């Protein structure tokens, strides 16, 4: 196994790169590597490089950058807005959604959100580790929580919002604006111009969005409400299912 | 919250149903219910019923079955064959795949499977709890592990096998039989007669299938190799992604 690590510094062939103390510890004490061993480095800007350990001490590691092995390619502009859930499913969302290809995590405060205090730094570390392991050339960002109403009122033009509307099968719901039932996610995604490249997926808390929140979302022009099958999915399952369908129907999972 | 419980006995309006000791404990001590409280009962055969607690002691609960609220509908004949992974991701596969709609779990022993001993009873309990929570009318079964070669040689006629071929992007691979690269999962699924109703999805262990196993799978007529995007997915992410795509493209997630 060749270690694959994210660093902040610029990467250029022939330039030595210092790693962090934590990375030095990981290479030396966890992976038991030594001077002369190889690794891969990426920084989210310059592609991926083959590198070699030229100095390795308890708290210090320096790598010689040998050759570029991948160029930086464009990645999907895909945001996941999610109502924070309990720690296990929350960390699970971050790890899996990073593998699936999310670029940005935006925690959303909803009426039913039960999230005392989010440890953004820890979530960012989970995203980083998942990015290193899944072969991405970038690390998704994790922002501070914002309120649902603020998200909608400051919405950037041209961006689609896929709304996982668990209660979308409620035939008797009466809406102020756009009517009735949400359609199956894949049906909705297949109907969209597939060259759209800026996407947001929003999923609710355990217990779902309130009726007022659903109305706010469904009466908004850029929102596309979708359903995810006849069973009740947990919040983390719903988020990952919607992202998988979006990437498969409209994103980079279509590449051969 | 109205509790929703699976029982083994037949369900019929007017007939009293005894619950298990564990269910009596759960209702009395965890949910703090008492005589007169309502619940829903299902058994995988007779649909779902509204019921009322008529006796509740420490180790004994009896419910009066009041009215049928859902009839038993046909569910997809969808099997997940998976190489067992570590406990966390393994339990995660069972829980999420039950929500997504799997009918049968078949653990598979592969060359790289690292699975000392599977606790089938515990996996079955996780499937049962997920079925109760997600509103299914059935509980998926979990079978004893079998070897990959035995799975393939005893394959039932007419059944499709969707093979998540992580290494499917290897352009230089040379195969004895059917050539080259796997195609994106959704592209493959969209090409299939959507009235096919018996499916199996197979996913590999951490580290993937060996080259010999990949050849065995890809040279077999009923196997459809698919890819799941350009990043390396963990074994549990891959299993759930493939199931989501199958249900959305060919299964009951298409229902409005």
Mean pLDDT across all amino acids of chain A: 90
Percent of residues in β-strands of chain A: 25-35%
Coarse morphology of chain A? elongated
Q: What top-tier CATH class of the largest domain in chain A fits best?
A: Alpha Beta
Q: What's the total helix number of chain A?
A: 7
Q: Which two chains share the most extensive interface?
A: A-B, 38 and 38 residues
User: What kind of oligomer do you see?
Assistant: homodimer
Please identify which CATH superfamily of the largest domain in chain A we are dealing with: SPOUT methyltransferase, trefoil knot domain
CATH topology category name of the largest domain in chain A? Alpha/beta knot
CATH architecture of the largest domain in chain A: 3-Layer(aba) Sandwich
Quick one: how many beta strands of chain A? 13
Beginning-to-end CA distance, first to last residue of chain A: 26 Å
Q: Ranges of chain A with pLDDT <50 over ≥5 residues?
A: none
Task: Provide the succession of SSEs of chain A.
Answer: EEHEEEEHEHEEHEEHEHEH
Count the domains of chain A: 2
Radius of gyration of chain A: 21 Å
Tell me about the largest β-sheet of chain A: 8 strands, parallel
Q: Approximately how much helix is present in the residues of chain A? A: 25-40%
Briefly note the structural class of the backbone of chain A: alpha/beta
């Amino acid at each position: 196994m060749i270690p694959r690590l994210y660093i902040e510094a610029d990467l250029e062939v022939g330039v030595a790169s210092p790693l962090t103390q934590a990375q030095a510890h990981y290479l030396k004490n966890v992976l038991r590597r030594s001077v002369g061993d190889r690794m891969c480095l990426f920084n989210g800007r310059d592609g991926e490089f083959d590198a070699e350990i030229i100095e390795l001490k308890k708290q210090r590691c320096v790598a010689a950058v040998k050759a570029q092995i991948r160029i930086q390619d464009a990645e999907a502009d895909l945001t996941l807005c999610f109502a924070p859930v309990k720690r296990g499913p929350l960390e699970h969302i971050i790890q899996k959604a990073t593998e699936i290809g999310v670029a940005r995590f935006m925690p959303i405060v909803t009426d039913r959100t039960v999230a005392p205090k989010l440890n953004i730094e820890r979530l960012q570390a989970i995203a980083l580790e998942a990015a290193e392991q899944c072969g991405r050339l970038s690390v998704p960002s994790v922002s501070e929580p914002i309120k649902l109403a603020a998200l909608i009122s400051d919405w950037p033009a041209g961006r689609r919002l896929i709304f996982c509307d668990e209660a979308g099968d409620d035939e008797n719901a009466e809406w102020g604006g756009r009517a009735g039932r949400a359609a199956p996610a894949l049906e909705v995604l297949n109907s969209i111009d597939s060259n759209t490249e800026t996407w947001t997926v929003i999923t609710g808390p355990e217990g779902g969005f309130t009726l007022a929140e659903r109305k706010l979302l469904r009466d908004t022009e850029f929102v596309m409400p979708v359903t995810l099958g006849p069973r009740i999915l947990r919040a983390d399952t719903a988020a990952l299912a919607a992202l998988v369908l979006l990437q498969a129907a409209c994103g980079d999972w279509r590449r051969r």
